[in-house]
Amino acid sequence: MASEFLTSADRLDACPRDDVAEVAFAGRSNAGKSSTLNRLTGRRQLARVSKTPGRTQLINFFTVNEGGRLVDLPGYGYARAAKSRQQAWGEAVDQYLNRRSNLVGLVLVMDARHPLKPFDRDMIDWSAARSLPLLTLLNKADKLKRGERTKVRRSVEAEVPPGTRTLLFSAVTGMGAFEAIAAVRERLGGPLAQP
Ligand code: GDP
Question: How far is the CA of 171 from the centre of ligand 1 (A)?
Fold first, then answer.
């Protein structure tokens, strides 16, 4: 999926104003969200922009040449215990997830060794409540043995809503990348959700 950085937004009304379909990527910090975006777009440095100082809390948009956009949501994980998850993660993300009519699908990147943390469960519940198609990527699967991979995939599949795709994935080796790209492309080619 050849892609280019388009723009960053710090609030909902700074997001591009058009009807281009968007698939958003969410994940806990260090789950490998940037590496995943790089792998899926074939660009080793694509998501580096999202990590540059000043941009880590922004919503970053990438145009896919074949059509549609990939949206890199800020990594979640620096929340302080005293703050609610939502407050800490940011108002802009909350607005994007709840009000952005361009949003047609969500990709949740998890570390296959530590899946389904509270943040992940929140995202899964939220996408189910919004009936937004969800793809869960069990990243870093290269770090697991064969038997462990099957076990983690089954245990995650048993806990996500029906219709959710769950893939063993590795941003490093490319495991699952073909299937993930196909799933994202399929969403980007689909119709926009009703606002
Ligand atoms: P982000 O914070 O979610 O954007 O995570 P990064 O993409 O920066 O990755 C965090 C760390 O995990 C880096 O050291 C990556 O090299 C490593 N990493 C990411 N994906 C994989 C993977 O599939 N396999 C392995 N072994 N390491 C990975």
Answer: 7
Nearest CA to ligand 1 atom 17: 32
Ligand 1 pocket, residue 104 CB under 6 Å: no
Residue closest to 8 by CA, chosen among 47, 41, 64, 42: 47
Query: What is the distance, to the nearest Å, from the Cα of residue 99 to the centroid of all Cα atoms in its chain?
Result: 17
| Ligand 1 lined by 27 (C-beta under 6 Å) | yes
**Does pTM surpass 0.85?**
yes
Tens of pLDDT, residues 62-119: 999 999 999 999 888 754 444 555 565 678 888 999 999 999 999 999 999 999 999 9
H helix and E strand count, the chain: 6, 7
DSSP state of 192: P
Helices of type H across the chain: 33-41, 85-89, 91-99, 118-129, 146-157, 177-188
Q: Which residue is it, tokens 């800020």?
A: 74
Q: Are strands 134-139 and 69-72 parallel, antiparallel or unpaired?
A: unpaired
> Strand, helix or coil at 83?
coil
